[in-house]
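A common beginner's mistake is to predict each chain separately and then try to dock the pieces by hand. The better habit, illustrated here, is to supply every component at once so that their relative placement is modeled jointly.
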Amino acid sequence: MKCDISEGVIQKGDSHGAISVELSPFRPRGEAGQQGLPKKQPRILVLEDQKQIRELVRAMLRIRKYTSDEASSLAEARSLLARTRYDLLFIDINLPDGSGLSVVDEHSPDSPLVIVLTGNCDLQTSIEAMRRGAVDFITKPFTIGHFLQRLDKALEEWNARARLKEYAQALRNLVEFKTDELSRTIRRFDEIRDMTVLALGQALKLKDNETEAHCVRVSQNSVQMGRLLDLSEFELTNLKWGAYLHDVGKIGVPEQILMKPGPLTPEERRAMEKHPVMGHAMVRSIDFLTHSTDVVLSHHERYDGAGYPSGLAGLQIPLHARIFAIMDTLDAMTSDRPYRAALPMSAAAEEISRLAGSQFDPEMAKIFLSAPPITWQIQNNR
Ligand SMILES: [Fe+2]
Ligand SMILES: [Fe+2]
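With all components supplied together, the output reads:
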């Protein structure tokens, strides 16, 4: 059939009844009428077994300057759909090799928009097709005006979906960018925090004999014990820095006391025993160390209440400080001193066992003693 759209009306008889196409009501849309339509050409497939209707639909698409592919059977349509990503499908329901609805069944949110072409008798089926995802149906016979109106509506929908997809993609990109930016900021923050803590450690090293290696080992061993106790990562980080900075308050102790080779006088001892409180005052004012103060303030408390600066006893002593107290003794005993060589791990374990319940929390001592010696870092075992 020749579809001459310049004649005004096209009539063609078919199994679904006469197709009456009135051209007169149709006026081409001007530029303003094209607003909102997609800028890119939609890829359109017309699945219709009747050649005349197929050609008619394609001719009407050409009015909007859209090209299209055609298929006369489901098999042909499936073959085209496998090769090409279409944006819009016109499908007939009654096809020689099955129902056009099976194409709608294969429809997913990313699939093309579907408009069902149907005879009046298929109305119920068309409604069913829309329930399954078709966006519209056009009942045969139809006028050009009606067809183009449905086409424009479908393409507006296509355009809206495309904009929504672009918007969603832009949002995803933005979230990805912001997440990267946040990760970079967090990494930078971590670096600054680490540098600050290390700088504090270095400042202490200039004043006291306590070595950085000692601070690193007691910090690692405290974290190891924290892991045996199933502490959270947040707790472990606080414990790590608290242990590393345990003696930072010694920065405030006069050097002649810190470096005095012989025993301290009572007055000097009182000055020395201020270091946990001075360290606490320094650390608590640093925002990211506010949760790392327990070890700094309470590492010289004793389980029996005979320690300092507050004479806390038992579970009054913060957990991190009870953990650390064992690790500090372990490291002190297994490290070389000017007046003696490092003692073996077994000697330290014996001493910690002996002082469990007096100097140390017996529970912490038990956990320490039940872990294999290889668990702990000491001066000469690595
Ligand atoms: Fe100390
Ligand atoms: Fe220490």
